[in-house]
Design goal:
It is a single chain. By secondary structure, the protein is mainly beta. The protein contains no helices and 23 strands. It has strands spanning 7-9, 26-29, 53-60, 63-69, 80-85, 92-96, 98-99, 107-112, 119-124, 128-134, 140-147, 157-164, 171-177, 185-194, 200-202, 206-210, 219-227, 232-239, 248-259, 265-278, 284-289, 295-301, 307-313. It has a 5-stranded mixed sheet with strand order 1-2-23-22-21, with no helix packed on it.
Length: 316
């Protein structure tokens, strides 16, 4: 039986004109176990796009700033936004211009590039990566496009994460096909370096199949993932029976990833992944650790109910 934590909740939702804002709920989960969270029916009218990927860009006192991506598919819909999490205050969300390339379709993940301040990689569900630069008020500028290696037929990617290593310029990349019900998620891991032109180059790819311990029905086994400072893999899963829900989600410990002494990527999955937290009424699609803390930033795409941003002590 999962342990139950006390939940301190502060709900703030914003609704604005289409394509101009992001509906956000800020929820703080305190303690060590799991907690079921019932959605507030008063927020059911929020219609702004949800969060499909998140990376924390910097800490700001008790809060943080982040870049979030949206799984928009139509021209003119927001693709990426800047989010400021401020405890006890309404969140600040600013949609950003997408510059230097055509609008991507169905962005599902984003992470910062270790060792290259201001650079990030955003991933579309088909396996196309976009290396972008945060240009401040001017938006984000696309620097490079590239396909992920070892893509298999039917893959639908929803997770991507990068981690630094002790070797200068070498990082570990992990990405995941989400899986669905009887079909497990597939995790991919490889060394990654950027060549002299900033283009990603990958080493041999390791793969492993993964099934979420929770939820049980209409489940996407890997709706996002992140790598902690110790190399632990945290993975989110989500129950998605359709745009009307009802949704349910979890974050669980899936294993570890890193480089061995020979510089080879090691991807080790837990025999029995452990659920850390569950989120009833939400479809978690974004997960990132807040650097230097145990806090995780957890983004959701609750379809007609908009987006939610939750924080929980899950990292480390």
């Amino acid at each position: 039986m999962r342990r139950t934590a006390r939940l301190r909740t502060a709900l703030v939702r914003t609704a604005a004109a289409a394509g101009a804002a992001l509906a956000v709920v800020a929820v703080a989960l305190t303690a060590q176990g799991t907690q079921r969270q019932d959605p507030d029916p008063g927020d059911a009218t929020a219609t702004a796009p949800g969060i499909s990927g998140i990376t924390v860009t910097r800490r700001t006192g008790g809060g943080f700033e982040a870049l979030v991506v949206h799984d928009s598919k139509k021209p003119g819909e927001p693709r990426i936004s800047r989010y400021a999490h401020r405890p006890g205050k309404a969140p600040r969300v600013v949609p950003l211009d997408w510059r230097g390339a055509g609008e991507p379709v169905d962005l599902e993940a984003v992470d910062r590039v270790p060792g290259r301040p201001g650079e990030y990689i955003a991933l579309a569900s088909e396996g196309i990566g976009y290396r972008v630069r945060d240009a401040g008020d001017a938006g984000v500028e696309v620097l490079d496009l590239f396909p992920l290696p070892a893509i298999s037929e039917g893959d639908n990617f929803e997770g991507f994460a990068l981690a630094p290593t002790a070797r200068p310029g070498v990082m570990v990349a992990v990405w995941a096909d989400r899986g669905q019900d009887d079909r497990p998620a597939t995790l991919y891991a490889a060394r990654m370096v950027l060549n002299q032109y900033g283009e990603p180059r990958f080493g041999p790819v390791r793969t492993a199949e993964l099934r979420a311990p929770y939820p049980a029905l209409d489940v996407r086994h890997a709706s996002d993932l992140t790598i902690t400072a110790t190399g632990e893999l945290l993975v989110s899963s989500a129950s998605d029976p359709g745009d009307e829900g009802p949704f349910d989600s979890a974050v669980y410990r899936a294993g570890h990833v890193g480089l061995d002494d020979a510089g080879t990527v090691r991807l080790t999955l837990a025999e029995a992944p452990r659920t850390r937290a569950t989120f009833e009424g939400h479809k978690v699609e974004a997960l990132a650790c807040v650097p230097g803390t145990r806090q995780a930033a957890i983004g959701t795409d609750d379809e007609a109910n908009g987006g939610a941003l939750l924080t929980a002590a899950l990292c480390g």
